[in-house]
C-alpha cells in the first residue's frame, strides 16, 4: 500500500499543460527524488499535492484517503499529513525562529504550548540552531533559514515531507549544512518526496529517482540504475548535461 | 474694528470661546470619525478585495469601483454628492451628519488603498507557506500579513490622516460650523483676521501634532520590530550572522 499515491494527475496553467497524466507512488519510509529540466512540472507537482494549485484531472491519495481538492476540509486534512519546505524558505519574518517553529502547532493544531516549546527546541538543536531560537529570520544566513524551515515543517509531525529545491537559493558553501539535515531525516525513516538539482545528493539519499519531462515521469528507477544505465533517451540526454556535484 | 485688547479679552471669555471650542470639537469629531471608520472599514475593504472566493466577486467589483472612484473625485464634490444623494433618498439628516458620512466614505477609500499596498508588500510565498500550514484566512491576516504590513502602511496612513484633519474644513461648504468656518464668522463680527486665523492655525496644529508624533513613534517601533540590528545597517542590506562568528571579526566592528 503506497503512502502517497498519485494517479493520472493533470494540471494546466491556462491552455498550457504543466502536468500531463502523471502517476507516481511513494511507499512509507521511502525517499523519492524528482529530477528534470526546469519547466518539467516538478515544483508544480508539489504545489498541487499541497493544494496551492488546482489539479485539472486525476487523483491523489494519502494513506488510504483520497484528497478532494475541491473541498477545503479535505485539503486541510491532507495538509495535516504532509508538510513542505520551499526553495525560498518562506519563514515568517515577523516571528522569531522559535515562534516560526511553534506557531503552527500552538495556533493551528492547538497543542499545549509548553510541550510544543520543548519539541521545537529539540528540532532546532537537531539542525544545530538551538542558540538562534530568539533571533529573527532576517538575521540568519540562507542555510540557517532553510534549516529553520525544515524544523517548522517537522513541528507539524507530518507523515510525508515535500522538499522543493531547498538548496537552490543557497550559497554553495551553505548547501552542505542543509543537506546534512535531510540525510539525517532519511536515516530516521521519514517519507520524503524531493525535487533537487544536487545530483550527487539525490543519488546518495534516494530510494527511487524519477526523471520528469513535459509533465510526465519518463523513467523511474533506483538511483544507481537511473544514473548509470538510463533507459530512456530523454534521461540519457539529461544525464549527459547535468553538473555532477 | 475693536481694539486688540478688547478683542483678546472677548475672545477668551464667554460665548466666543465656547463657540470656537465647539467648532474645534466639530473638526475633531469629523477627523476622528473619518480616521477610525477609515482604518476599520478600510481594513475590511482591503481584505475583501484580496479574497478569491467566487461568491464575493460582485462585492469585490463594487468595492474596486468605490475605492477607485472616491480617490479620483474632489473632496468637495463627494460632500455635495453625499448631500444630494441622501436628500434624493428622502432622508432628513443634519448637515453635520451628512458631512460625517462623506468624511467616512473618503477616509475609507484612501485607507483601504493604503492597506492594499501594505498587504501586497508581504511576499506571496510566505502566504503560500501559511496556507500549507493550515492557517485560516484570519490567522494569515493577523499573524502573518498585518504585522508585516505596518511598516508599509503606517507612513502613508499617518500622512493621510494628518492632512485629513485639514481637509475637514471643506465641510464648512455644507454649512457645518467647524474650525475654519467659525473663524470666518468671528472675522465678520469684527475680530482681526490675523488674530483669528492665527488662533485657528494653532488649534489645527494642536490637533494634528500629537497624531504626527504617534505616527513617528509607531513607525520607529515597526522599523525595529523584526530587525534589531536595522539601526546599525545601511538601508537595503540584509544583516547576516556568520554560521560561526569569528571573534576577531567581531572585535573589528
From TrEMBL, chain A:
The keyword Ion transport does not apply. Keywords: Amino-acid transport, ATP-binding, Cell inner membrane, Cell membrane, Membrane, Nucleotide-binding, Transport. It is found in: Cell inner membrane. It comes from the Bacteria. Residues 4-239 form the ABC transporter domain. GO terms for molecular function: ATP binding. Its main location: membrane. It is a peripheral membrane protein. Pfam families: ABC_tran. This is Amino acid ABC transporter ATP-binding protein. Belongs to the ABC transporter superfamily.
From TrEMBL, chain B:
It is a multi-pass membrane protein. Residues 24-215 form the ABC transmembrane type-1 domain. It is found in: Cell inner membrane; Cell membrane. Residues 233-253 are annotated as: Disordered. The chain crosses the membrane at residues 20-48, 69-89, 95-112, 194-218. Keywords: Amino-acid transport, Cell membrane, Membrane, Transmembrane, Transmembrane helix, Transport. The keyword DNA repair does not apply. PROSITE patterns: ABC_TM1. Its main location: membrane. It holds the Pfam family BPD_transp_1. It comes from the Bacteria. SUPFAM superfamilies: MetI-like. Belongs to the binding-protein-dependent transport system permease family. HisMQ subfamily. This is Amino acid ABC transporter permease.
Amino acid at each position: 500500500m503506497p503512502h502517497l499515491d498519485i494517479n493520472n494527475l493533470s494540471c494546466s496553467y491556462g491552455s498550457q499543460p504543466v502536468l500531463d497524466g502523471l502517476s507516481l507512488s511513494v511507499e512509507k519510509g521511502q525517499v523519492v527524488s524528482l529530477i528534470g529540466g526546469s519547466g518539467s512540472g516538478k515544483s508544480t507537482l508539489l504545489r498541487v499535492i499541497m493544494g496551492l494549485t488546482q489539479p485539472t484531472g486525476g487523483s491523489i491519495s494519502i494513506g488510504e484517503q483520497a484528497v478532494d481538492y475541491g473541498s477545503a476540509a479535505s485539503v486541510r486534512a491532507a495538509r495535516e499529513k504532509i508538510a513542505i519546505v520551499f526553495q525560498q524558505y518562506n519563514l515568517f519574518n515577523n516571528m522569531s525562529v522559535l515562534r516560526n517553529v511553534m506557531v503552527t502547532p500552538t495556533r493551528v493544531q492547538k497543542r499545549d504550548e509548553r510541550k510544543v516549546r520543548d519539541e521545537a527546541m529539540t528540532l532546532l538543536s537537531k539542525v544545530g540552531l538551538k542558540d538562534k531560537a530568539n533571533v529573527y529570520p532576517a538575521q540568519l544566513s540562507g542555510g540557517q533559514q532553510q534549516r529553520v524551515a525544515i524544523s517548522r515543517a517537522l513541528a507539524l509531525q507530518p507523515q510525508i515531507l515535500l522538499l522543493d529545491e531547498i538548496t537552490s537559493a543557497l550559497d554553495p558553501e551553505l548547501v552542505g549544512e542543509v543537506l546534512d539535515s535531510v540525510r539525517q531525516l532519511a536515516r530516521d525513516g521519514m517519507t520524503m518526496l524531493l525535487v533537487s538539482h544536487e545530483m550527487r545528493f539525490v543519488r546518495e539519499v534516494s530510494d527511487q529517482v524519477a526523471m520528469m519531462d513535459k509533465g510526465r515521469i519518463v523513467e523511474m528507477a533506483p538511483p544507481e540504475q537511473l544514473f548509470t544505465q538510463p533507459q530512456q533517451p530523454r534521461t540519457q540526454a539529461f544525464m549527459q548535461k547535468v553538473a555532477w556535484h | 474694528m475693536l481694539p486688540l485688547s478688547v478683542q483678546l479679552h472677548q475672545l477668551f471669555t464667554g460665548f466666543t470661546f465656547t463657540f470656537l471650542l465647539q467648532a474645534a470639537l466639530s473638526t475633531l469629531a469629523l477627523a476622528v470619525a473619518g480616521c477610525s471608520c477609515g482604518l476599520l472599514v478600510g481594513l475590511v475593504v482591503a481584505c475583501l478585495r484580496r479574497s478569491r472566493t467566487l461568491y464575493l466577486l460582485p462585492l469585490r467589483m463594487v468595492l474596486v469601483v468605490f475605492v477607485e472612484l472616491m480617490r479620483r473625485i474632489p473632496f468637495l464634490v463627494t460632500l455635495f454628492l453625499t448631500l444630494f444623494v441622501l436628500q434624493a433618498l428622502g432622508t432628513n439628516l443634519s448637515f453635520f451628519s451628512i458631512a460625517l458620512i462623506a468624511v467616512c466614505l473618503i477616509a475609507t477609500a484612501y485607507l483601504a488603498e493604503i492597506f492594499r499596498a501594505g498587504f501586497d508588500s508581504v511576499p506571496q510565498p510566505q502566504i503560500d507557506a501559511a496556507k500549507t500550514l493550515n492557517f485560516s484566512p484570519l490567522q494569515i491576516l493577523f499573524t502573518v500579513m498585518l504585522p508585516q504590513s505596518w511598516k508599509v502602511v503606517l507612513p502613508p496612513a499617518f500622512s493621510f490622516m494628518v492632512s485629513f484633519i485639514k481637509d475637514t474644513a471643506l465641510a464648512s461648504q455644507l454649512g457645518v460650523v467647524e474650525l475654519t468656518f467659525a473663524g470666518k464668522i468671528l472675522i465678520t463680527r469684527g475680530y482681526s483676521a490675523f488674530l483669528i486665523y492665527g488662533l485657528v492655525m494653532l488649534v489645527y496644529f494642536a490637533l494634528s501634532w500629537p497624531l504626527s508624533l504617534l505616527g513617528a513613534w509607531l513607525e520607529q517601533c515597526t522599523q525595529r520590530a523584526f530587525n534589531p540590528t536595522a539601526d546599525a545597517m545601511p538601508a537595503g542590506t540584509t544583516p547576516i550572522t556568520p554560521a560561526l562568528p569569528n571573534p576577531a571579526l567581531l572585535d573589528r566592528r
